[in-house]
Structures are given as structure tokens and as C-alpha cells.
Amino acid sequence: MIPLSWYLVLAAAIFCVGLYGALARRNAVAILMGIELMLNAVNINLIAFWRYLNPGSMGGQVFAIIVFAVAASEAAVGLALIISIYRRRSTVAADELNLLKW
Amino acid sequence: MPAMTVVQIIFVVTAIITFLAAIMVVASPNLIHSALWLVLTLGGVAVVFLLLEAAFLAVVQVAIYIGAIAILVIFAVMLTRQVSTGLASQVNRTWWLAAPAAVILFAGLILLFSQVAGFQGLAEPLVKEPGTLVVDLGRALVDAQGYVLPFEVASVLLLAAMIGAIVIALPPAPVVEEKST
Amino acid sequence: MTTELWIALLPLPPLVVFFAILLGAHRNNRLSHRLAVGAMGISWALAMAVFVRAVGVADLAHAPFAASFNWLPTGAGWLRMGVLVDPLSALALFFVAWTCLGIFIYSIGYHNFGQPRDPHDQPGLPPHHGGVEPMYARFFAFISLFAAAMLALVVSDNLLLLFIGWEIMGLCSYLLIGFWYGKPSAREAMVKAFLTTRIGDVFMLLGIVALYSATGTLNFREILANEQVLAALAAAPSGVLGLSLAGLIGLLLFFGTVGKSAQWPLHVWLPDAMEGPTPVSAMIHAATMVSAGVYLVLRFFPLITAGWHEGAALTPTMTVVAAIGAFTALFAATIAVAQNDIKRVLAYSTISQLGYMIAAAGIGAYVAAAFHLFTHAFFKALLFLGSGSVIHGMEAGEAATSKGDHAAGGHAIDPQNMFSMGGLRKRMPVTFWTFLIGGFALSGFPLLTAGFWSKDEILADAFGHGHMLVFGALAAAALLTAFYTMRQISLTFLGSPRTPAAEHAHEPAWSMRIPLIGLAVFAIAAGWIGIPEHFPALGGIIPNWVHGFLGASLAEGGAELAFSATPLLVSVAAALGGLTLGWWVYRRVAAGSPDPLERALGPVHRILKNKYYFDEFYQDVFVRPAYWLAETVVAGWIDRGIIDGTLHAIGGLSLRVGAFLRKWFDLLVINAIGDQVGNLVKWGGSVLRFVQTGRVQQYLVVGLVFVGLVFTGLLLLRP
């Protein structure tokens, strides 16, 4: 009933929104939230493709589960980093973290 | 326009809500609001999973993403709250590059996806019983000819991430004056 | 061992000794003179052996000892090098060997071997009396080389080897005349000798080249014993002054003799050559070098007389030869009467006697010329060695009377000036008697002396063939010769000593007296081998061996001339008359009084004493312009101005071009390129570094933009 294209468009849209958030937001936590959006869009894509193109194999779902694990670990580490930076430099604005500047 | 089925309507509504929530995540100046909109977005994605008959994954989405990651994000926001939030801009100087880039990327992705065979196709009905999907998934995760190896690797990854997060987030050495949290 | 091998070995021992002394033996005086005298002795022995064998051969003139080998390849053929001993060479070998050996032995005593070295002596200056010569070994090295060259010249069978010996002798005479190079007069004399003989040698070389190009060979037998070649050369015109080819070549070769044998006009070097030690004067001016010139003329007699036969008129070349010879004989004799230095008198006497020989060759008297060459070598060597003995005695006397003058290095009186001598007869008897014998031989004292027989033959030949001008000139020269010889003997030995040095003179060492005695024997006896057959009373007792031996070489066997009394009487009158006159004028010249001849001749005497001012003339006309040309034109204008100027200009131009390129191209363009590339990179870097803002999000955005561009490109490119 629902063509595959609808799911893919949705996934693409959420991905691009997440990308904008990762690239345009100043706060580091906000950037992380953008990244979470991107990962979720990827998951939607994966499951949609699993369902529509190859529902017999479990590979699609397993892939999505692995993506979950990766997203979780990445969020944990990223937030730990942000905490650490906040402790040392009293800021979490990404454009103030420019020690590698010329 | 031909009459839409119930499923289609549900999907459209969910999609719109999810999309708008996502936009609010990146557009909201208040970080707590952003986090809450994120929760809504993640919920919408869970519903989408349900529509795709990946029930287990929908539950996992709610439990892990909303229950763990989103909470973690909220903690982080609260722990790194700055006195003067709301006054400073929340987009950086080159956001005007990022926006068109995102739009162009969207167009490009759609173009790319349209090349996939079956882009306009509909889902074939599932052969199996819905309940057996979870069993099959569980079996696949521990099957030697299946996906046991990625499973184990993922668990190692989580272990490493956990240890790493703890180490990174440790407070600085006691010599340094402790900042008030 | 064959005779040819002995002949080839003849010149080698002295040559080897030259190198031996040069390379190490010079450190020891005794070793040097032993090597030199020993080598000369070996050559003497070989020469005597060859001579004995040569006179034993029946017809040596037509079957000489000859051997040669291919030496240089010349296109189609070979230049051959070899040895030849025919009658002329045999005679020359005899007198060269004896005189050279005598001179070598004499040199030992002359250079005071055995005496300690005087601490005031410097090498390059004559030693003070009684001190050994500091450059003793060097002297023996040079005279050894000299002897080797002369021997090589005499035994050579081709003109090239003769010329090589000729030139080496020129070198040795240069080295030996300037042996005492510390004296400026010696330095000038050595250069004068070399250059003057060189002038003659240039013409000789032209003659050699002309001969080679005309005949294709330089071998004596092939040219001079070959009737057809001589006839062809005599007939072919040379295009120069209307002479035939034979005449031109003969004339050119003769000019070499003019230089080497000091004939007018190239006579000026020989008197100055007296600067060398006396043995050198004896060697050069009696035994070897000047004889080589006459030897050349005699060797090429067939060429010079090509087209002439006995009794005919003289060819142009012969006329030139006879004229120069006769003129020189008289010319030099007139100068000799006004000279006061004992060696100078002998020098001019040598020039005069050589003129005799050349005049004889010029009128076609081959045998007479060769005979006179032979006898002259002995008595002239004797006279020179005797004069050396006199000089040594005078120096001894001077040293005895003026003590403490050594530091000055000079002499209070000139030990060579005859007007400081006198009365040496009693003090130096051996020297006196041998000198007297030599002097009589030179004057042509009848019957008893060798000079008489040879000189008489020349006069007889001149008179007999009707060359009256030559006869008259030679007769006058004979009179003058006898006069100045007696003048010399009287001033030196007779009367009473005119200075204290002469009073205290004494005989020199025995090594100096023995050669004198030996040569005196030859001065008497050497003439008896050539007594003419038709001579009254004495002719025929001893056969005229010289005529038979040498005459066989002539194309026409040459019968002896019919005897004529006139030349004999003239010659006897000239000899005895001159001797008597000289004795009478000079027997009692007191100390300090002037030369009686000065008063008699007046202004003429001054001209004679100054040698007709020929030296001054040559100096002004040739030497000074040559120096000017060399110093001013060539060295100054051409060398410094043009050549150096060109080089400086090129150098300056290069420098300027280089500076220009440096300033306008190197600095501005090339350096600029290098600098600007660097600046560009620096600028590029300074601009590009702003990309690194340190903001991760910007990096991501830029990366995303580029990825998008790439994807778009790929999509568009996909067909």
C-alpha cells in the first residue's frame, strides 16, 4: 500500500535535517542531536529496504541493531567528551573550540 | 486522488509529525526544548518501524534511543548549561552554507534513490507469522553461519565505548581547582 | 771486429763520458779527468787502428770503409745513416785524434789539478793563480762532447750526420767560450760566436735542403762519387744569379764554412772567442771546429768544382771561394801585426791560415788544401798550448811578486799582453823551444818545418795554374805571417823581462809540457809525407804519400805539377825575410816603450789595431737594430701591445659582458624567478592558511560541498 519511495523520501528528509543541525548549530550537544537524527534516518532506510526488497533474510534487521549499538556508544563517548571539554574550557560552543586554528 | 488507505494516512501523519519535530530539534534555540523535540522525533521513528512490521526494532528504538540516549542528551544539556544561554546565537557563522548544502543533498539523495529498482514498488506480504520474526532475528544473531560475529564485535565496541566514556569524563587531577558543577 | 764497427764506435766513448760526468762523476775531479782522458784515449786508439788499416787499403778512394743502415722512412725510400772513411776522413781522423788527446792531457795541468781550491774563487770566474778550477769536471764534460761531435762529423757518410756534429760543436763552442760566465766579456763573446756562426749555418741548411730536393739523397758517395749526378747538377740551372744547381748548392754550403771557419765577413767571432780557457782556444781554433769548415769544403770539392777540370777557368763558385779565402788570408794577417795580446795574434793567424786553405780549395788545389789543414792543426794547437803555458807562467810570476792582491780578483798587469813579457826564454825553456818550432812551422821555415811543405804547395799550385792575384795575396800574407810570428816570439821570449812578473815566471806542470813536446815532433815531421816528387834534390827520396793517398779521390787522378822555381823562391824569401825583419825590429824592446810599428805606420797602425773597425760597424748596422727590433717592436709593440692587448681586450670584454648579464639577466630575471616562486608559495600559504579555522563544522561543510560537486560531476558524466 505504501510505496517504498515514501519511506525513502522521509529518511532522506530526516537525514538532511540532521545534517543541517550537525553543521549549523553552535552548541556541541545540539550537534550530537543532529547526528542522532542522521542515524535514525539511516535506520529507517535500512528497515525499509529490508522490508521491501529482501524480507526473507534477517540481515537488514541485524544491520539496524548494529547501528543502534554504534549510535549508543557514539553518543556515550561524545557526551563524555563534551563534559570533559566543558570542565576544562567552560564552553561547549563548537566555534570556540578552535585550538587547531592557524 | 484515489482514496488512501488507513495505513497510508497513518504513515503520512506520522511522517509529517516526525519531520516537523526534526526541524524543531535543529531550529529550537532552547536546548531542553531541542532535546524534547528529539524525543518526539524518535517516537515517530518508532511508529515508522511498526508500520514496516519490524516490531522488535520499534521496541528497541523506544527503549534504547528514547530511554537511554535521549535521557543522556538531556543530562548533558543540564550539565553543560551556561549562564548566558539564549543570548548567544545558536547557529554558527557558516549556517548559510549548510542549509543549501542540505537541500542539495536531499535532492541528490532522492535522485540516487530513484535509480533503485522497485522504487515505486509495493511491499510483498510477509510469508511468516509475525511472531516468528523475533525468533528468527534472535537465531540469526547467534548463528555461526549468521551474524554472531558482528554481534560480538558490537558488544566489544560497547564495552570499549563504556570504558572510554568513563575515562574521558573523569574529573581533572585534584591539583586543578575544581569547577562547580 | 770489422773496421766499420770500429769507425762507428769512434765517437762514442767521449759522448758516454759526457753523460757520465753530467750525471754523477762531476763530484770527483780526478774521476772526471780520468774518464775523459781515458775515453779520448780509446777513441784515439780506435782512430789510429782505423788509420793504419786505411792506409793499408790499395785504393781507399774508390773502395772506402763504409757501412750504413736504414734510419728514417721517407715515403718510398729510407734515409740512411752510416759511416765512411775515405782518404780525407782518414787524414782528418789522424790529426783530430792526436790533437784532441794532447789537449785533454794538457787541460789537467792547465786547470791546476792537484792544487787546493782558493777560498776566494767563485765558479764562473777564472781561478786565482794556483787554485784548482772550481768547474773542473764541467770543463771535461764539455770538451768530451766537443770531441765526440767532431769525431762523428769526420766519420759521417751523409750530410745530415755531418750537420748534427757541426751544430753540436757550435753548442759546445758557445758553452766553452763562455766557460767563465762570470765575466761580462765572456758572456758577450759566447753569444757573438754562436750567432755569427748561426748566420753561416742558415745558408748551409738551405744548401742541404736544396741538395736533398735536387738529388733525393744526402749520402756523400751517392752524390760526390757519382759522375752522372755531378754532371746533372752542374748542368741544371738554379735560377739564382745564373748559377748552375751545383754552383748554388756549393756556394750555400760554403757560406756555412765562412761562418764556422771565421772567414771574412763572418770572422768577428773568433778573436773574441779567446775569452775561453786556452785549451778551448786550441781545440776550437786548431784541431776541431774551424777545421770542420775546411773539411766540409774539401768534402764537397767535387760539387764545388763540378763542371771544372784542371786548366780551365774557375767556375763562379770557385771564384767566390778563392777570392774570400785569399782576401781573408791577407786581411787577417794585416790585423795580426798590430795586436798585443798573445792569443789574439794566434786567433788572427788562424783566420789567415784558414784563408789559405780555402783559397787553395777555391783554385782547385784539393791535395794542397787538405795537406795544409793537416799540418796546420798540429802547429796551431802547439802554438795555442804554448801560449797557455806562457800565460800560466806569467800568472805564477805575478802571484810571486804582488802578494795580497787576490781579494781584488784583478791583475796588476795583463798576463796576456806581450809587452809585459820578455826574456822568458831562460825561464821557460821547453815552452820556448816548442813555441819556436811551432812559430817556424807557421811561418813556413824552409825544409825543416811542416808548414813550409804545405804552404809551398799551395803557392806552387796558385802560381802554376796562373791565378796570380791569389798568388800575390797569399805571398804577401806569408810575409806578414812570418813577420808577426817573429814579433810575437821576440816580444815574449827574447830580450829581457819588461815586468817583475816576467822575471819570476816559471815552467808549468809536466802534464802541460808533454803535449807541447809531442806536438812539436809532428810540427816538424808531418810535412815530410808530402814532399813533391819534382822537388830539387829532396824530391823522390820519400814518396809524396799525401798526393797519392788524397789525390786518388779526385776525378782526374791528378799528376803532380811540374816543378817551378818561382813560387819556391817567393815562399822562401817571404818566410826568411819576414822572420828576420820581425826579429830585428822587436829583439830589444825596452819596458814601457811603445810598439816600434806604431811610429812606422802612423795612423794605419790604429786602424789595424782596431781590426778595421769591423766590430763597431757590425754592432751599429746589425746588432743595435736587431736589439731595437726585438725590444721595441716585437716585445713592446707586438707582444705587449697587440697580443697582450688583444688578450686584455678579450678579458675586459668578457668581464663586461658578464657584469651586464649579471645585472640585467641573472639578478633581474633568474633570481627574480626563484625569489618570486618562493614569494608566491609564501603568499599562497599565507592566504590558504585561513582555511584552517580550527572549527570542525566548517571543515565538514566544505567537505560536503566538495563531495556534492564531485557527485554532480560523476552524475553528469555518466553516459
What does this structure look like?
The complex is a heterotrimer of chains A (102), B (181) and C (719). Chain A has 102 residues and is mainly α. Chain A contains 3 helices and no strands. In chain B, helix 1 (6-27) runs antiparallel to helix 2 and helix 2 runs antiparallel to helix 3. In chain B, 24% of the residues are buried. The model of chain C has no long low-confidence stretch (mean pLDDT 87). Chain C is mostly helical and 719 residues long. The chains are: A mainly alpha (102), B mainly alpha (181), C mainly alpha (719). At the A-B interface, helix 1, helix 2 and helix 3 of A face helix 1, helix 2, helix 3, helix 4 and helix 5 of B.
Topology:
The complex is a heterotrimer of chains A (102), B (181) and C (719).
Chain A: H1 4-24, H2 28-53, H3 59-89
Helix pairs in contact in A: 1-2, 2-3
Chain B: H1 6-27, H2 31-51, H3 55-79, H4 95-113, H5 130-142, H6 148-168
Chain C: H1 3-9, H2 12-23, H3 29-56, E1 65-74, E2 77-85, H4 87-110, H5 136-155, H6 159-177, H7 184-215, H8 220-224, H9 227-235, H10 245-260, H11 269-272, H12 278-287, H13 289-299, H14 301-304, H15 316-336, H16 342-362, H17 366-401, H18 424-427, H19 429-443, H20 450-464, H21 468-493, H22 500-503, H23 510-525, H24 545-551, H25 565-586, H26 596-601, H27 603-609, H28 614-688, H29 696-717
